[in-house]
Design a protein that fits this description.
Elements: H1 24-40, H2 46-58, E1 71-72, E2 80-81, E3 91-94, E4 99-102, H3 127-134, H4 153-165, H5 176-180, H6 183-191, H7 198-208, H8 212-217, H9 221-231, H10 234-245, H11 250-255, H12 260-269, H13 274-284, H14 288-293, H15 297-307, H16 310-321, H17 324-328, H18 331-343, H19 346-358, H20 360-364, H21 369-378, H22 382-392, H23 396-400, H24 405-415, H25 418-429, H26 434-438, H27 443-453, H28 456-468, H29 470-474, H30 477-492
Antiparallel strand pairs: 1-2, 3-4
Helix pairs in contact: 1-2, 6-9, 9-12, 10-13, 12-15, 13-16, 15-18, 16-19, 18-21, 21-24, 24-25, 24-27, 25-28, 27-30
Length: 494
């Protein structure tokens, strides 16, 4: 950079000498000859110099015309200045950046290195600063006398969308897919789908059908697909289903997409033909267990369980039943399994319950599996509750001391009925170490629930157990919680 800066900090622009059709080769020769002549003729007056310079500029074809335009030295300086030669400057446009910059056309005759100088001003012009400024998206404000085309990408895009908004849906043929993946383009297409004709639907469906799975997973395209589905007839929906089921697991992958899950639910919502619904269930069946555990996919499975009959959902119910434990111990899967138990009927429901009961103890101690057991008891189907209690028999004391399983024991005490609750309480009282239940962080809540539901002899047995261990309970934080239960009932007069 040292040989490019003069004493005043100016910058010398090197011109291309390979004639490029803009007169730059001739300009270099002319500038060089002028430089030589001014050095050899030191007696020239300033008016002669000005006249020679203006004549030289008039012979160049750099721009259609030379305009009188203020030139900015930089954003930080804030100076606006004009060249000293007839107050004329040449403004050139960089097509890659849309930046207007000043281009010096003469050389300072007082410097042997032919470095740039300005008549009247020794203005600093840093190339590094210019390069940085070229990447800025701010455009220099020129005089109104300069008419140049705008290179703003944002303005161009806005104009394009304004033009497209004036076109009909048919006139957008060939652009539907690309517009659907653009935020503004997708909105534009949805607006034109308010009252589409059958020909419009056919045209749009034809353009997006081969790529409909990609659009369903796209953050913008999924909205167009949802809009399209709502106006499609059964024949159109069948074509969409056939396109989605043509590739194995494609529908499963769509359901696992945060955007695709919405589009898939919209498709299922608008299916009326039983054959089409059966086709969709068959496509979802292989990945039903995986979808049940997926943060996005479980919404699709739950939609099917809630809105379709049990016999229609049988394929996905059987698939989930085969992987019941994996589903029950997952954060999303435990919610799906609860819906499976609630909305299933017949043999498939019996199979689900049997698979759950087979792992009842492990599920009771699981952070998510315990909710499945609680939900099953909460359905208040005596058969299910009785089977669960038989499965947990002999483990109620140990389960009461577990953070998660204690909730299952409480649920059984409260919702199972008097006969079953008596059996559970008597098992707790006759366990190897019943005083431990009175001071345990979790079992003390089980004892409180047992006091609430017990009557008669069972209640008297609980009171006797508490009175025999009153002293250690008073010195224990969790034991005092049980004593506080008695105090609260005394105050309330219960």
């Amino acid at each position: 950079m040292e040989n490019q800066r003069n004493t005043g900090g100016g910058f010398r622009r090197r011109w291309d000498v390979s004639g490029d059709g803009f007169g730059r080769n001739n300009m270099m020769m002319t500038s060089a000859s002028f430089y030589t002549s001014t050095n050899n003729n030191s007696c020239l007056t300033s008016s002669d110099v000005n006249e020679n310079v203006c004549n030289m500029f008039s012979s160049l074809s750099i721009l259609p015309e030379t305009v009188r335009t203020p030139v900015f030295s930089g954003e930080s300086s804030g100076h606006r200045f004009y060249s000293g030669v007839g107050e004329c400057t040449n403004v050139m446009v960089d097509p890659h950046h849309g930046f207007y910059y000043y281009d010096p056309m003469w050389y300072n005759s007082s410097n042997n290195n032919r470095e740039v100088g300005f008549s009247g001003f020794d203005q600093k012009f840093d190339f590094d600063y210019l390069t940085h400024d070229l990447h800025r998206k701010e455009k220099v404000n020129l005089d109104e006398s300069v008419v140049v085309p705008s290179f703003s990408m944002v303005s161009s895009r806005l104009r394009n969308h304004q033009v497209l908004s004036e076109l009909s849906l048919r006139e957008l043929r060939g652009r539907i897919y690309s517009l659907a993946k653009d935020q503004n383009g997708c909105r534009l297409l949805q607006g034109k789908f308010e009252n589409p004709s059958n020909e419009d639907i056919e045209m749009v469906l034809y353009e997006v059908l081969d790529s409909i799975s990609e659009l369903m997973k796209d953050q913008f395209g999924n909205y167009l697909v949802q809009k399209l589905i709502t106006v499609c007839n059964d024949d159109h929906k069948l074509r969409i289903l056939l396109s989605l089921t043509d590739v194995p697991y494609e529908m499963v992958l769509i359901c696992m997409s945060p955007h695709g899950t919405r589009a898939m639910q919209k498709l299922l919502e608008n299916l009326n033909d039983p054959h089409q619904i059966a086709l969709a269930m068959a496509a979802l069946r292989p990945g039903a267990a995986r979808l049940a555990n997926d943060p996005n996919g479980h919404h699709v499975i739950q939609y099917c369980l809630i809105h379709f009959p049990s016999d229609v959902n049988e394929p996905i119910l059987n698939e989930i039943a085969g992987k019941c434990y994996d589903v029950a111990t997952d954060r999303s899967g435990c919610c799906v399994l609860q819906a499976c138990i609630e909305h299933s009927q017949g043999e498939v429901r019996t199979r689900l319950v049997a698979e759950i009961l087979a792992k009842a103890i492990h599920l009771a101690e699981d952070p998510y599996g315990n909710y499945v057991l609680q939900h099953m008891v909460g359905l208040k189907v005596p058969e299910f509750t009785a089977q669960l209690v038989r499965q947990l028999k002999g483990n109620f004391a140990a389960l009461s001391c577990n953070k998660f399983a204690s909730n299952v024991v409480e649920k059984c005490l409260i919702d199972s009925g008097e006969e079953i609750s008596k059996k559970i309480i008597m098992e707790l009282i006759t366990s190897p170490n019943p005083p431990l239940l009175l001071v345990d962080p979790y079992a003390n809540f089980v004892i409180q629930s047992a006091l609430t539901v017990s009557t008669g002899v069972v209640y008297d047995c609980l009171l006797e157990l508490i009175s025999d261990n009153m002293a250690p309970m008073r010195s224990n934080l969790y034991g005092r919680k049980i004593l506080a239960w008695f105090e609260k009932r005394r105050i309330l007069g219960i």
